[in-house]
Amino acid sequence: MHKLLAQPASIIVVLWGWVQFLSFFRFFMVRVVALSFATCKSLEYLTNGLSLVVVLFVLNYLWVHRIWFKKPEVKTLATIWIALFLSMVFTNVIQQNVLHHVVFELQHALFMLMTGVAILLTGSLLRNRWMLVGGIVFALLAFGASYLQLKHQMLLEAIGWMVGFVVPGHLMMRRKTVNLFQ
After folding, report:
1. What's the pLDDT at 13?
2. CB-based burial, 54-86: b 16+ in 10 Å, e otherwise
3. Domain count across the chain
């Protein structure tokens, strides 16, 4: 476990990637496979619980190593992901103001595009070519998702998280590539 904690950039990428992959894959599965109510609720509680554990882990890790935030690269990385979150919020507000309702098929494809760009920028900052490729693939999946129903968009987003975060994160851990947090 100590080896994992020595590579916070890698472990954070892997944890967030798996949480996002499992969450979106669950959304897809409960909409296309006939599952009992109890099974759907169990999957929901499991993915939400895992998300909470990862959030607490990351917050604790960032608190313990808060000196990292003095590094310009870490500030830039935090800014990218905060900007993504705010962009998603404002996308909903703009859709509501213009269309007077939220079109989830449009919203989700736009969210995927923004996430792909954030992953691309993160890969550039971390100098991780697999994350760069993952960000491009994520953006292309967003384009493909714009032609699909919301339930199928969830599958494409799950694939995007696997390609954009999970695989590059595991490769970062294995190869001990750039670590901004040391």
Report:
1. 87
2. beeeeeebbeeeeebeeeeebeebeebeeebee
3. 1
* Burial of 170: CB neighbours in 10 Å, binned 0-12, 13-18, 19+: middle
* Cα 10 from chain centre: 14
180 in a domain, yes or no? no
Q: How far is CA 10 from CA 16, 36, 101, 173, in A?
A: 10, 36, 39, 5
pLDDT in tens, 35-92: 888 988 998 999 999 999 999 988 888 788 777 777 888 889 889 999 999 999 999 9
Is 181 part of any domain? no
Q: What is the pTM of this model?
A: 0.86
Q: Flag whether 182 is in a domain.
A: no
Q: Residue 30 and residue 75: Cα distance in Å, rounded?
A: 38
